[in-house]
Amino acid sequence: MTTLFGSKSKSNNNDNPSQQQNQKAFFLDPDEAKTYGDIDYMRQPNTSKKSFPKTLSNPEGQERVEEVSALQKKSLSKNNGDQTNNNQPFQSSPEPTPPNPTASANNDPAIEQRRQSDPSLDMFRNMARDIKKE
Predict the structure, then answer these.
(1) What are the respective helix, strand and coil percentages of the chain, to the nearest 5?
(2) Fewer beta carbons within 10 Å, N or C terminal of the chain?
């Protein structure tokens, strides 16, 4: 039997428990679960050639050939003296350290004073404490 909007009633859904048991969990393999786009394309190494002009300090000029993929970066050029990341996987950039707040807090006396709490917010604070306990 259908309801006013055409959906089935709840009593009909409980009549077929064997149909609900037949539904299995659906899992994706790790490559399909990632949302980075076409992973096979990203894993293909791309060769890039970079050339630099001749200068007074470098009269010969310079040319770098690199093979870059999503997993690693290889330097194929003959001058590997200044290359430090040869055949190493990519690493994320280091996180910047936040400035030291204690040095600036010692100079400002206004920061040392705390504001008085508002008693009208006690009801909300109590509700938040109750939610944390559950």
Answers:
(1) 30, 15, 50
(2) C
